[in-house]
Amino acid sequence: MAKKRVMVLYGGRSDEHSISCISASGVLKAIDTERFEPIAVGITKSGQWIVGGEDPRGWDLSGGVLPTVEVTPDCRPVTLDVTRGRDGFMPIGHVDVVFPVLHGPYGEDGTLQGLLEMMDVPYVGCGVFASAACMDKHYTKILLAAAGIPVAPGITVDARAYDESNADALLARVEEAGLRYPVFVKPSRAGSSFGVTKVESADAEAMAAAVAEAGRHDWKVLVEQGIDAREIECAVLCPKPGDEPMTSWPGEIVLDREGNDQFYDFDSKYMDNTASHVEVPANLPEDMLRRVREVAAKAFLAVDAAGLSRVDTFVTPDGEVMVNEINTLPGFTPISLYPKAWEANGLKYADLITTLIEGVAR
Which cofactors are reported in the record for this sequence (predicted)? Predict the structure, then answer.
């Protein structure tokens, strides 16, 4: 049987460019080359698609340096002819499946998915609607609330409308919404904790600075009430369209830094391997773990997700499970929570990749 040609797309134009590169490195090193012929296609930060550049399998974060896709003398540009479908990737030729190991806007937000749909090219992951809806945390909350799934109280503001001169008006909106401090201010359409600030009190200067920081990544900004809860994450897998979603035992990122006011920022996730560790299953009673799995599956279906997602929840001291957000293409490095959660459930990293690809290959 001929090997299926799998295009692994990585990099991209979002703030999460480098994390995508690391995720792709893990996928390319683990993919079953007896079944698949991987084709590594990088997307530069300016949006140029290239093949034959630096080999991403050599990338990691051990040196504390974030990798990027760069145009090199040996690489070739990849051009797309939408009319030719799976044969429309020049100079690559025929592609059976695309595995978009892309995080954030222009990769995880439905734009790429729409392009591949037009080309009738099978791809791993959520479709156009779920990708777009889950990329925008504002609309994710609307969909989840409509499905009866609890979410954190919050408001959405336009960062372009607020600065230090009218920050008092923003504080008034927070008070009117009944939000209690601390609050978290974050971009609605970004990931990896980029632009997230914790505001401890009704401080106009601090609030203006937080909105400005979030606004560097997205003009649409969420101000959410801080929840006294543990952050528990559940991996969801549904490789074949129409199947019932499967859920892993939920996991938890445990912060190892001293102090009780830390939150899981970019450095904790990727740049400091002493800052945190993953525990799967999370240290919770089994009935609560099952409840998290039930909520994760319900949330997955509520947004019409497919393929894979990581559902991030808050578990409060009184046992309420709230959904924080849904990542339709979660971190996919071998040490990321999503693959580690499935390994804890008996599905190895390489087999997870195979399952996802074979679920959509046709």
Answer: Mn(2+); Mg(2+)
- How does pLDDT run across 218-227, given as a tens digit for each residue? 999 999 999 9
**Is 16 noted as a catalytic residue in this protein?**
yes
User: Does the active-site annotation cover 46?
Assistant: no
Q: Which of 192, 268, 276, 309 is catalytic?
A: 192
Report the interhelical angle of 17-30 vs 349-360 (nearest 10°). 100
Would the pTM count as exceeding 0.85? Answer: yes
185 assigned to a ligand binding site:
yes
Domains of the chain, with CATH numbers?
A: 4-123 (3.40.50.20), 134-150+228-360 (3.30.470.20), 154-225 (3.30.1490.20)
Q: Would residue 279 show up in a list of annotated catalytic residues for this protein?
A: no
Among positive and negative, which fits the CA dihedral 281, 283, 286, 287?
negative
CA distance 232 to 323: 9
Dist. CA 322–CA 313, nearest whole Å: 5
Give pLDDT tens digits for 41-52. Answer: 999 999 999 999
Which residue, among 348, 263, 256, 281, has the nearest Cα to 26 in the 3D structure? 348
Dist. CA 105–CA 19, nearest whole Å: 13
Is residue 264 within 8 A of residue 253, CB to CB? The reply is: yes
Amino acid at 11: G
Backbone φ and ψ of 187, nearest 5°: -65, 145
pLDDT digits (tens, 9 = 90+) for 295-338: 999 999 999 999 999 999 999 999 999 999 999 999 998 889 99
Q: CB-based contacts of 49: which residues, under 8 Å, 6+ apart?
A: 41, 42, 43, 77, 78, 79, 80
